Amino acid sequence: MHHSEEFVAVNEDKNDDDINKNDESALWQPTWLQPIALSCFTGIFLGLGIALLAISCISKTNHGILRTQERFGYVWRFGPTTGLTILSSLWSRVELQTLRYAPWMSERVQGPFDPNLDYTAMGMPNVLIQSLRRRHFMVFMTSMVTLILKAEVLLAAGLFSVSPTQVTEPVTVQLLTSFNSTRESPLLITEKAQNAYFAAQAVHGLNVNPPFGVTEDHAYQTFIDSGTKARGTSQQRLKVTVDGVFSDTKCIPLESYSVNDTPFVFHSDDETTAVGVLDKLDIDLRFENCNETIPLNKEQRITYTLGNGTGMHVVSTTFSPNPRPCSNLDTQGNRFLWFQSYWRPKGDGYSSDEVVESVASVLCSETTWLSKLEVIDDGNFPTVIPLFDKHAIPIDSNVWEILLSSIPDANGKVWDPFEPAPRSIHEVFGPLAVDLIHGNEGSAGITNELIHNCVLRLAGKLRPLLAHFVLRQSDESNILGERLISVHELFVSQKVCLSMSALFIALAVAMGGFNIWHGRYIKVLLRDPATVLGLLLHSQARSYSSTQSSDSDLDAKKNEWVEVVFSPLFLKTWAQSVFTISLCGLIVFLVITLQLSESRDGILNVPQQGYWHLTWTTLPALSMFVVVSYVSSCSTSWRDLSSLSHLAISPLSSKDVDISFVDMIGVRTVLVAYRRKAWTVLIQQITTFSCGFLTTLASVAFSDKLSLQPVKVQLQQDSWFGDKIFEPGREKDFVIMLVTNRHRLSTLFGLREEMDLTFPKNTFGDLLFPTINGDNITKKDVLETKRDGNLAVQATIPAAKLLPACTRLPPSNDIFLDVMSDNDIHEVRVKIPAICPNGTNINITYEFPSDRPRHKAQKFHFAAMMSSFNYLVKRNWDCGVEDYLLADLLGPSLTQYYVWGQWSQKSVTFDFLRIYSCNYSWAQISVNTSLIWSDGELLIDKASPPKPNNASMRPWSPAFVAPELVLRVENRVAMSIFPAYLNKSFGEDGYMDAIFKRMIKPYGKLPVDVFHDPGMDGIILEELNKNVAIGSAQIANLENRLSIGEDSMSTPFPPGGLPLIDAIVTDHNRRRLFQNPIVTYIVLGTLGFACLVHAWILVIKAARHFGIRSKILMDERGLAPEGFNSPALMEALLHDSNAAKFIPKGAQELPPAELHKKMEGVRFRMGWYMKESDETMHYTIGVLDDEDFTFMGSKAEMAAAERHRAKAD
Question: Transmembrane region positions (predicted)?
């Protein structure tokens, strides 16, 4: 259709003199293509590029730009998007004028050109291709800038984000403790060290949290906020650099040994059973990579059994650093040696020689020092980061001696009541290393590797707690720390920012160079060719038909105007139908998402990190950008055709045909359209104005915010409570389990308050909770990722609690006390009737010896707890029953008897006596519980203790056994939940069982005088029942917790499953995608208006098929051919015009106002004219009232007349 190739060539012979001559005759140049305008844009691009680069550096350096509020996030997205939208709109004038005038300027500057070229009729890809082919670099440049600016507008939506972040602010921190490296008395060290061992058992055996100030590897100074006098919280964490205790143990194994002569002396109390040996050990030891020989010369008293005479040497000794240390041992700190051997005498009976069966030993060095570490405390789980500074301070303490003093003796170990206590390595390393020792008993199992592992295991588990209990001392001082608080900070997306900065700087450089090189080619036009009058003046000066086109081409161009049925792409009915339907879809989508946002506290969960925020900022902006682009394109098409449409409908003055809607911006377009009654342009321009900021509004329509609104969920129970099933014949294993569990709990129960330890999981005080499954929290949009420390759950959980029912029992014939006295040693016997399993009536006798009172006190106290007859071992002992039935032990209730009073030495009787019977059974109670998410599971929040609802208490169903706290074998304590030091019943206060001793000072809060005060019965019973309930909860946690589907001995698993637990979940780090209602309403109103406008256009177009026409809507179909803005088509339209006769001479050089004045009264009209001189018809824009050039009618009028004649014929 176009003869493009022959006009593409650029005339390189055109020199600067030719251009300057054109400049002298040119009176007009496009406003937006002037060098000053392009220079302004260049400066703006450069400024924005530099500013964005600076913002990126500031944000990266300072971890944010500035502190702000979350509600201002809209401003920081709306502002840049609005600014760039305005900048893009202004640049669109540059692009439009470049596309419109480039073909005309190329003729003036570059000689041969393509008169068929019309960039305004091309799509953007075609513009870029054609401009490059024709070397119209300004067109290519402005089009590329347009694309880049549109991309910048979309990117600007995600440029800034307001996100929560952790910042620090200085705070005064009060240190509570420090570490003392001076040596204390051995007795005091031993007591503190044993506390450390018990704590280690609780931490590693029961999974309780260590006390504040202790981690798995270090101990550090404790502290609080000096202002609030409290530790940090999850919302305001404390960050402090404090002193920490570091330790390191290195060991080398035994390489060889030599045994010297070992004479020894026997001593035996019973020569038929055992021999007491005072054994002198004399052995030389050599260790790997150690040049020195270490002699070991020790005396030990050992007991072994005749006939199976295997004894065991255990030697631990410490050395000062040797001047010639072993090469692979640390030169700092003390060394210690651990030696263990099994031996037997030669022959049978008494002998003076022994044979060593096995030897194992390690030589170790222990180094302890103070160094700095950073602690971030949230009140629950502090984070500790060692700093490993170079200014470490060594601690001169013999840690290994302290460690050995912490290991309990045989009274604290697990003891099998069915077997004699063996001489084993258990006694050496204690329960903390039992898993390593298991299966390695005897001479064959003792190896260097085993000893090495046991030493390191003990050291690793005990060192931090030893430092905590032994080296820590009260020492208050103030230091400067930091408080970590969550604030909202303005961040810039680094990738987006740098991309935008690079694009702006590239635009500035390209535009600067282009402006300098091509600025002189701009002022080359005689008049504005976008107006009809400008085209007439231009056509008068240059006749394209005579110089650029053949007569056949000219006739073809004329026929295009006559036979045209073309309609611009964006104004086609199908395009507007698709657009209108798409608008309806967008409106429905926004309404649905708004309802979701308001009804569900946000649309969905969104991640906080990464570039996900670009999804809900850029995608809505992109969709609105498409809408705005289409509306703008429609407006441009309507305005481009407006002048021709008005000329086809009514005559216009010279002033009216000297303006063009295409070159207008802003309010002027609306005013001129209103004055000229260009209703289509007016309505479309208003629509364009209203849609102009849709892209900006869409960028702030969606935002992510912290959502603390509670969400209701239902949680599943992962355990229930019953009696574990044991196979017949495993009674011994069952009792060993009971003993082992009570031993494990003894450390926790006896020292929990002193050591600031937490309760084991799923327990709190006297409350026993089921295990809660938190998988449902990931459903119902609660959260997508479980985040430790940020999830709070409030739930009403059915917990188990041991319920007491106590009755005072006065002495009677059934319940009585005997007091036997012999040389100031008194024995109290309590007899209580009971019935054996075979029906025999017996009296259960409890004997409590009261040793001679110290200091010859005349009165002392007596307090005892009698084991329940329900206990299987005691029942069988008292009743003489040999067959064990586990079912006899599992009862739903437990009866304990308590006796306390004051003994008078003078009268050899009780001055005050109380006997109580307490029956215990499990009750169900609803507990309002706060849970937190930690390490993948829900745990009770110790900072917010559970709140029982006592009104909800009812018997537990199905019932399960109430456990024994103290187990006795042969009327003596085999194992108790109370630690060994509380079981030492004799003291200055008289005889007192452990459960009572824990109540009084220094272990408890009560004075000892309560045991002879009649008014204190209630308080004593309250403390007793509290301790029993706490201990029972801990025992049941180990022995009666059953998994889902596991049957109890007394009842099967509930066939309907366990009831769900209603909970309210709050995620303190939960971010939800919200839709702004106000912005959405504005967007919906704008889209609705645009939808109505385009629906109205479609209705009017449809009505035309039925002959109904409206003057309000312009009929664009057939008004102009495709590419009508090209010089060739416009020349073809004006070729036969009579306007040249009415244009004053030299009109090209006249100012517009003067030209309009001289042409006052001249009226223009587009349509069919008859030239009277030759009676030929011409379709053109002509001047009316010319006798030789008569206006016959518009194209539509002539077509209607033709149809009327055809119908008449």
Answer: 36-58, 137-160, 498-517, 578-596, 611-631, 678-702, 1078-1100
Are 84 and 230 contained in the same domain?
Answer: no
- Work out the number of other CB atoms within 10 angstroms of the CB of residue 928: 13
Q: β-pairing, 972-976 with 264-270?
A: unpaired
Are residue 187 and residue 145 in the same domain, yes or no?
Answer: no
Alpha helices in 425-473 (DSSP H): 426-429, 434-437, 448-466
* Domain-located, residue 565: no
Contacts by residues 593-599 (CB-CB < 8 Å, ≥ 24 positions apart): 593/1075, 594/1075, 594/1077, 594/1080, 596/1075, 597/1073, 597/1074, 597/1075, 598/1075, 598/1077
pLDDT at 21 over 90: no
The total number of residues written for the chain in this structure: 1209
CB count, 10 Å around CB of 951?
7
Does residue 120 sit in the same domain as residue 189? Answer: no
Q: Is residue 1102 part of a domain?
A: no
Give the neighbor-by-neighbor strand order of the sheet with 841-850. 816-822, 825-835, 841-850
Q: How far apart are CA 1031 and CA 752, in angstroms?
A: 12
Instruction: Domain of residue 219: give its range.
Output: 177-483
DSSP 356-389: EEEEEEEEEEEEEEEEEEEEEE-SSS-EEEE---
Whole-angstrom distance, CA of residue 909 vs CA of residue 899 = 14
**Contact indicator for 747, 202 with CB cutoff of 8 Å:** yes
Q: Is residue 359 part of a domain?
A: yes
Domains in the chain, number: 3
Dihedral sign, Cα of residue 732, residue 733, residue 738, residue 740: positive
- pLDDT tens for 89-132 read 889 888 888 888 888 877 666 545 678 888 888 888 899 998 88
Beta strands 264-270 and 702-706 are unpaired
Same domain flag for 115 and 240: no
- Are residue 182 and residue 259 in the same domain, yes or no? yes
Can you tell me whether residue 568 is helix, strand or coil? Answer: coil
Please choose, from the candidates 1004, 962, 967, 964, the residue with its C-alpha nearest in 3D space to the C-alpha of residue 982: 1004
Is residue 1002 reached through a cis peptide bond, with omega within 30 degrees of 0 on the bond before it? Answer: yes
Candidates 178, 167, 177; CA nearest to 237 is 167
* Angle, CA of 934, 937 and 940, to the nearest 5°: 70
* String of DSSP letters for 1098-1152: HHHHHHHTTT---SSS---TTTS-TTTTSHHHHHHHHTT-SGGGGSPTTGGGS-H
Q: Exposure string (b/e) for 146-170, b if CB count within 10 Å is 16 or more?
A: bebbbbbbbbbbbbbbbbbbebeee
Select from 246, 287, 280 the least CA-distant residue to 266.
280
Residue 128: both structure tokens together:
């870029």
Residue type at position 360:
A
Same domain, 65 and 213: no
Helix axes 186-206, 399-406, angle to 10 degrees: 70
Summarize pLDDT for 223-264 with one digit per residue, the tens.
999 988 989 887 788 999 999 998 888 888 999 888 876 545
Same-domain status, 128 and 257: no
CB atoms within 10 A of CB 553: 17
Q: Which of 981, 1008, 1040 is the last residue of a domain?
A: 1040
Pull the structure tokens for residue 309.
Answer: 């005479």
Distances (CA, A) of 1171 to 666, 788, 1143, 1185, 1193: 42, 91, 19, 12, 13
In 3D, which of 302, 305, 323, 306 has the Cα closest to residue 314?
302
Q: What is the pLDDT of residues 683-733, one digit of tens each?
A: 988 998 888 888 888 888 888 887 777 888 889 999 999 988 777 667 677
Please indicate, yes or no, whether residues 191 and 127 belong to a single structural domain of this protein. Answer: no
Domain boundary among the residues 525, 548, 575 is at: 525
Would 534 be classed as within a structural domain?
no
Please enumerate in sequence order all residues whose Cβ is within 8 A of that of 584, keeping only pairs 6 or more positions apart, or say none: 1091
Contacts of 158 (CB under 8 A, 6+ apart): 77, 493, 496, 611, 613, 614, 617, 618
The structure tokens listed for 1155 are: 């030209």
